[in-house]
Amino acid sequence: MAGAMDTLVRLERTIAERRSASPQESYVAKLHDRGLPVIARKLGEEGVEAVVAGLSGDRAELTAEAADLLFHLLVLLGARDVPLADVLAELDRRQGVSGLAEKAARKED
Ligand SMILES: N=c1c2ncn([C@@H]3O[C@H](COP(=O)(O)OP(=O)(O)OP(=O)(O)O)[C@@H](O)[C@H]3O)c2ncn1[C@@H]1O[C@H](COP(=O)(O)O)[C@@H](O)[C@H]1O
What we know:
By secondary structure, the protein is mostly helical.
Protein backbone atom coordinates (compact mmCIF):
# COMPACT_ATOMS: atom_id res chain seq x y z
CA MET A 1 0.00 0.00 0.00
CA ALA A 2 1.27 3.47 -0.85
CA GLY A 3 1.99 5.87 2.00
CA ALA A 4 -0.64 8.50 2.72
CA MET A 5 1.50 11.27 1.29
CA ASP A 6 2.29 9.25 -1.84
CA THR A 7 -1.44 8.89 -2.40
CA LEU A 8 -2.17 12.60 -2.02
CA VAL A 9 0.82 13.67 -4.14
CA ARG A 10 -0.21 11.23 -6.88
CA LEU A 11 -3.82 12.44 -6.74
CA GLU A 12 -2.67 16.08 -6.95
CA ARG A 13 -0.73 15.19 -10.11
CA THR A 14 -3.67 13.27 -11.60
CA ILE A 15 -5.99 16.22 -10.96
CA ALA A 16 -3.52 18.62 -12.65
CA GLU A 17 -3.34 16.30 -15.67
CA ARG A 18 -7.11 15.83 -15.93
CA ARG A 19 -7.89 19.55 -15.81
CA SER A 20 -7.28 19.87 -19.55
CA ALA A 21 -9.27 16.75 -20.49
CA SER A 22 -12.72 16.86 -22.03
CA PRO A 23 -15.50 17.75 -19.56
CA GLN A 24 -17.49 14.91 -21.12
CA GLU A 25 -14.83 12.40 -20.10
CA SER A 26 -13.43 13.84 -16.90
CA TYR A 27 -15.13 14.88 -13.66
CA VAL A 28 -12.11 17.07 -12.81
CA ALA A 29 -12.34 18.81 -16.19
CA LYS A 30 -16.11 19.17 -15.78
CA LEU A 31 -15.66 20.88 -12.41
CA HIS A 32 -13.09 23.30 -13.88
CA ASP A 33 -15.35 23.97 -16.82
CA ARG A 34 -18.09 25.01 -14.39
CA GLY A 35 -15.72 27.36 -12.58
CA LEU A 36 -14.26 28.20 -9.19
CA PRO A 37 -17.57 28.97 -7.41
CA VAL A 38 -18.87 25.48 -8.29
CA ILE A 39 -15.61 23.86 -7.16
CA ALA A 40 -15.78 25.78 -3.87
CA ARG A 41 -19.45 24.95 -3.34
CA LYS A 42 -18.78 21.27 -4.03
CA LEU A 43 -16.06 21.26 -1.36
CA GLY A 44 -18.50 22.85 1.07
CA GLU A 45 -21.13 20.19 0.30
CA GLU A 46 -18.61 17.41 0.79
CA GLY A 47 -17.61 19.01 4.10
CA VAL A 48 -21.22 18.97 5.27
CA GLU A 49 -21.60 15.34 4.15
CA ALA A 50 -18.48 14.44 6.15
CA VAL A 51 -19.90 16.21 9.19
CA VAL A 52 -23.19 14.30 8.87
CA ALA A 53 -21.32 11.00 8.48
CA GLY A 54 -19.18 11.87 11.48
CA LEU A 55 -22.23 12.50 13.61
CA SER A 56 -24.63 9.81 12.49
CA GLY A 57 -23.00 7.56 9.90
CA ASP A 58 -20.92 4.48 10.36
CA ARG A 59 -17.16 4.40 9.98
CA ALA A 60 -17.35 3.20 6.36
CA GLU A 61 -19.59 6.14 5.47
CA LEU A 62 -17.24 8.59 7.19
CA THR A 63 -14.28 7.02 5.39
CA ALA A 64 -15.98 7.49 2.00
CA GLU A 65 -17.03 11.07 2.76
CA ALA A 66 -13.54 11.92 4.03
CA ALA A 67 -12.11 10.65 0.72
CA ASP A 68 -14.59 12.84 -1.21
CA LEU A 69 -13.59 15.80 0.96
CA LEU A 70 -9.85 15.35 0.46
CA PHE A 71 -10.33 14.88 -3.29
CA HIS A 72 -12.40 18.03 -3.66
CA LEU A 73 -9.97 20.00 -1.45
CA LEU A 74 -7.16 19.01 -3.83
CA VAL A 75 -9.30 20.14 -6.78
CA LEU A 76 -9.80 23.57 -5.16
CA LEU A 77 -6.12 23.90 -4.24
CA GLY A 78 -5.17 23.07 -7.83
CA ALA A 79 -7.68 25.55 -9.22
CA ARG A 80 -6.10 28.30 -7.07
CA ASP A 81 -2.52 27.14 -7.83
CA VAL A 82 -1.78 26.30 -4.21
CA PRO A 83 0.59 23.30 -4.10
CA LEU A 84 -0.21 20.52 -1.64
CA ALA A 85 3.43 20.90 -0.55
CA ASP A 86 2.64 24.40 0.75
CA VAL A 87 -0.23 23.05 2.85
CA LEU A 88 1.98 20.27 4.21
CA ALA A 89 4.74 22.81 4.98
CA GLU A 90 2.21 24.89 6.91
CA LEU A 91 1.21 21.82 8.93
CA ASP A 92 4.90 21.06 9.56
CA ARG A 93 5.38 24.63 10.74
CA ARG A 94 2.57 24.15 13.27
CA GLN A 95 3.96 20.83 14.49
CA GLY A 96 4.42 20.92 18.24
CA VAL A 97 2.59 24.23 18.70
CA SER A 98 -0.48 23.57 20.81
CA GLY A 99 -3.65 24.90 19.20
CA LEU A 100 -4.67 26.32 22.57
CA ALA A 101 -1.35 28.13 23.04
CA GLU A 102 -1.49 29.46 19.47
CA LYS A 103 -5.02 30.82 20.04
CA ALA A 104 -4.06 32.44 23.34
CA ALA A 105 -1.07 34.16 21.67
CA ARG A 106 -3.38 35.53 18.95
CA LYS A 107 -5.75 37.02 21.54
CA GLU A 108 -2.89 38.98 23.14
CA ASP A 109 -2.25 40.86 19.86
N1 LIG B 1 -10.80 10.55 -6.33
C1 LIG B 1 -11.62 10.91 -7.16
C2 LIG B 1 -12.99 11.16 -6.78
N2 LIG B 1 -13.62 11.10 -5.58
C3 LIG B 1 -14.89 11.45 -5.84
N3 LIG B 1 -15.09 11.74 -7.14
C4 LIG B 1 -16.32 12.13 -7.81
O1 LIG B 1 -16.87 13.22 -7.12
C5 LIG B 1 -18.27 13.25 -7.36
C6 LIG B 1 -18.91 13.47 -6.02
O2 LIG B 1 -20.10 14.02 -6.21
P1 LIG B 1 -21.38 13.49 -5.42
O3 LIG B 1 -21.02 12.47 -4.40
O4 LIG B 1 -22.09 14.69 -4.94
O5 LIG B 1 -22.16 12.73 -6.56
P2 LIG B 1 -22.86 13.32 -7.83
O6 LIG B 1 -24.32 13.41 -7.51
O7 LIG B 1 -22.46 12.43 -8.95
O8 LIG B 1 -22.27 14.82 -8.06
P3 LIG B 1 -23.03 16.07 -8.69
O9 LIG B 1 -23.74 15.62 -9.95
O10 LIG B 1 -23.96 16.59 -7.63
O11 LIG B 1 -21.93 17.06 -9.01
C7 LIG B 1 -18.67 11.92 -7.99
O12 LIG B 1 -18.90 12.10 -9.37
C8 LIG B 1 -17.43 11.06 -7.76
O13 LIG B 1 -17.21 10.09 -8.77
C9 LIG B 1 -13.90 11.58 -7.76
N4 LIG B 1 -13.55 11.74 -9.07
C10 LIG B 1 -12.26 11.51 -9.41
N5 LIG B 1 -11.30 11.10 -8.50
C11 LIG B 1 -9.89 10.92 -8.93
O14 LIG B 1 -9.61 11.79 -10.01
C12 LIG B 1 -9.14 11.05 -11.12
C13 LIG B 1 -9.54 11.74 -12.41
O15 LIG B 1 -10.95 11.69 -12.54
P4 LIG B 1 -11.60 12.20 -13.91
O16 LIG B 1 -11.29 13.65 -14.01
O17 LIG B 1 -13.10 11.95 -13.79
O18 LIG B 1 -10.98 11.42 -14.99
C14 LIG B 1 -9.71 9.65 -10.95
O19 LIG B 1 -8.95 8.68 -11.62
C15 LIG B 1 -9.61 9.49 -9.44
O20 LIG B 1 -8.29 9.15 -9.08
